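Predict the assembly for these two chains.
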Amino acid sequence: MTELLQQLINGLALGAIYALIALGYTMVYGVLRFINFAHSDIFMVGAFSGYYLARAVPQASVMAGVFVLLGSMAICALLGVIIEKLAYRPLRGRSTLTALITAIGVSLLLQNLGQRIFGANPKSFPTLFPQHYFQFDSGLVIASNQILVFVVTLVLLFALRHIVLNTRIGTAMRALSFNPTAASLVGVNNDRVISFTFALGSALAAAGGILYASNYPSIDPLMGTLPGLKAFVAAVLGGIGNIAGAAVGGLVLGLVETTVVALGGSTYRDAVAFAVLILILLLRPNGLLGKRQAEKV
Amino acid sequence: MLPRSQLALLGALAGIALVSFFSGSYDPYFLDVAVSCGINITLAVSLNLINGYTGQFSLGHAGFMGVGAYVAAMLTTAASATLLPLLGGQQWLLFAVALLAGGLGAALAGFIVGVPSLRLKGDYLAIVTLGFGEIIRVVLQNIDAVGGPRGLIGIPAYANLLWAFGLAAIAVYVVWTMVNSTYGRGFIAVADDEIAAEAMGINTTRYKITAFLVGAFFAGLAGGVYAHFKQYIAPQGFGFDRSIEIVVMVILGGMGNTTGVIAAAILLTVLGEWLRQFGDFRMILYSLLIIVLMILRPQGLFTWSLPRRKAS
């Protein structure tokens, strides 16, 4: 029972990080209908900005940790906006395949620039927040980092929900997602909304990067690829373009993955994520929370 | 009198045989790049059948290549002691059998991936094929009999210029004649508008699965040649990055444009080698190039007419 509970907690903590990254994929997909493959590398840049920002502040204090978290979110938001402006905006209105390949190009560029600038060797990520382990009599251990992941994810999720549902720019985002032409007809500045979406998604990726690096404190320029792919799986799992779906998909994926590891299949953990995806897509092609769309002829 | 396409194939094969007859006197580095070109042409042309002509979107081509490479390599290493005497001690025959087995193994994998493609399209299909590719990689990594993550070493060097380009010529011939036949117009119909094609009585299911089967078969053959040329294979070599490389060749060449795809395969292989002189900056330049080319020439480097816009 304790073992089960422990795995549940570990799985949810991992899943919460996937959920944060998945949100960025899903939001960009919602407004532009394309897979931003560079997202996983923005996640990596987020972790590295945290690594460098942490040098300026004392270690293991809550204030410093929050500063680093917000700082790297801001850096990545800016990076996301710049990437969108330079690489994706010229492609607006072209086929999604073109945008997809460009995104892959941007992803490669970030990885290789990262290897050039940060160095290819793994770096050990500093302790940002105070570490504490809560031991229970039954043997259950909850790390403060895991609680932190939950708290940050929940706060960001609710902030995002508020932005999307209750603000002008959020309304514009939903309008754009529904019908870009009609949105611009009623006065939505599509370029600005798309920039904002990229900023928001990239900031969430940065938060995911910091939290991931706090839990697995070895970072390198290629660290984004696998968590990024899995987060994308999570987004598809929940129904891409659907914010609640991304969160649910991330949690489900995290749980499945830790269950497989607990059952002794740790070398297969990367394959399992994809196996789950394929299964779900075959049974529910639009994801867990996705709506079935009628096909226009 | 043979049809013109068959004459072209025979001519190409004869030319390749002639050129590779003197391969002993060529610079080894040049030979290495040339063989890589041949393998990449096969991969790109076979992926073009799936992604270009049939309009599906597969991101798992390296996985098929990996299946072919491993099956073929196992037959020429572990199983060669029993197989070689059966085939009269002929090494080329063993290699041919191994290649064919690798191709069939990959085709089986292609069939398994092709089935979900019936229900999915676009981005969803892309991610499922990507997932299959990754699953193949992880499974290979976990089979100790084929070396696991260490890879498979000591594969005999059976492949050469003739095999690489002979295979490329056959792949080009098969794909070209297939899509330009009466039967093959069905592939293009599926790509243009699946619903309309179905309404016209085209069995879209069969066409999509055929595309995956044939594409994967040739990718498997290319993997076999690759394994017996490099003499070493590892699961990491058949991951997502490799798939992307092949997709980029197809897109830069122009989807559904065989000549362009061949040119792009050669161009990108040579470019990758040429950029080596820039050391650390090689991949940075490569990725910048992809972005710039996509912005300037999204229809592919070698497609001169703009595609017709679909009414939506």
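The radius of gyration of chain A is 19 Å. Chain A touches chain B through 46 residues (CB under 8 Å).
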